[in-house]
Amino acid sequence: MGYNISEVTGSTGGGTGGLDTWTFDVTLNGTGITTVSGDFDEVPIGGGPSSEPSDGYSFTVNSGGAFGNLSFDAVTGEFTFTIDRATVFASGSDQTVAISVTGTDTAGTDSDTLFLNLLICVARGTLIETEAGPVAVEALRVGDMVRTVDGPFRPVRWLGCRRFSPAELRAHRSLRPVRISAGAFGHDRPARELRVSPQHRVLVTGWRAELFFGAQEVLVPAKGLINDTTIRVEDEAGWVEYHHVLFDRHEIMLTEGLATESFHPGDYALCGIEGEAREELFKLFPELAGGNTAIATARMTLRPWEGALLQARGGVVDEKGAP
To answer: Is the pTM of the predicted complex or chain greater than 0.85?
Structure first.
């Protein structure tokens, strides 16, 4: 056989491929991506212009068919996979669709496999309370007015994110997300399961906070609240993307109905911001570029081991009620 079939457009979003396998990562973000498309051609092994096999193409969904619908042109090799976003998000994790593609002509057949990785990413879809109602964190824009616990709606000044691969998460358990079950802090707090970074701080209130730390309300890193039941480390996470929402000052906002902190640009947090995002942040807040990270927090902050003192009888419960 003197040819290979190859995906030639890369229009599915910049995938990687070889002679027989093509992989495309599709992040389901707030822009509303709904389709993945591309085109296979017959490419001569010895070089020369591409063409279509005389007997056309066949496409078969081998796995992941529940997460969308495949359509294709058997003559041209063009295909479109329409993603069922609701089903992917309802699954609660990243999904992979595997599709086999076969081209046939008088010289024989050639088969390739197409993998579509549908990535939810941690924090994508997490609803933030805004003046316009709940908005997915990845859909927020600078200037959006976000509800805060301590007063009026506040405008978003800066947005950032940091993405980690499955390999990075396997190598560094400290990067893996913390999964907070619906109702872990009381009715509808959070209203849905919530995933946050281990350092992301949650507002905890009640008599235990006042007894141990002299404050009715304290901020505790999520990793200090782990109880392996309602709050636990997600060891099998796929790609993870942590989003940062920054205001003029440190604020407490509502994520899925749970009071959690906004981004606090302390020394540790700034270590996770790189490249253009870091430069943009420093332009907005030049004092940070000079090493001044002594920015006041909205509440007393606890270290992880101090947060463990608040655990009692199966987990932390916000006894004061919703903010």
So the answer is: no
